[in-house]
Amino acid sequence: xxxxxxxxxxVLTGTTSATQNVTITNAGNSNVTISQITVTGAGxxxxxxxxxxxxxxxxxxxxxxxxxxxxxxxxxxxISIVSNATGSPATVTLSGTGVVQHTVSLSWTASTSTxxxxxxxxxTTSGSGYVKINSSLVGSLTYTDSNVVNGxxxxxxxxxxxxxxxESGFSNQATAVIP
Length: 179
Fold this sequence. Notes:
Helix content is 0%, strand content 50%. The strands form 4 sheets. The chain has a 5-stranded mixed sheet, with no helix packed on it. It has a 4-stranded antiparallel sheet with strand order 11-10-13-14, with no helix packed on it. It is rod-shaped, with a radius of gyration of 26 Å. The two termini are 39 Å apart.
């Protein structure tokens, strides 16, 4: 079996990870019959391994493994491959963590002047270090920041951009604490 363990790292809840493969190779000189492939652990799924299947010497069977967490937290799992080979059952250990993607929804009051749009700035330091996060002018009075990291605090300000291209000073700062 190669590999004997798979780590899926952090996977957003409600989504499915990229497929990782496990290759089972008959390295012996006689046929091996795999009678059962069982996966344990919430959210893990295996494809490509219908049983029973017989592998001739040097023949390979590739299993596709995915992780689809339904909730947050670390999830351990395993794949058990039962066959008539020496050392059966063979085991592949699985690990992954379900995580939530947080977002920050911002809204602000319209400028009293006519504007071409707004810019949104973010920092991880209160009162300084702001970096513009919108790629083009925001035409509405709302913005959603989907590029935030769990466990951090962010500070936001906005500016109004006038048709002349001039930009106002920063608004009052808003704070968002990401759990």
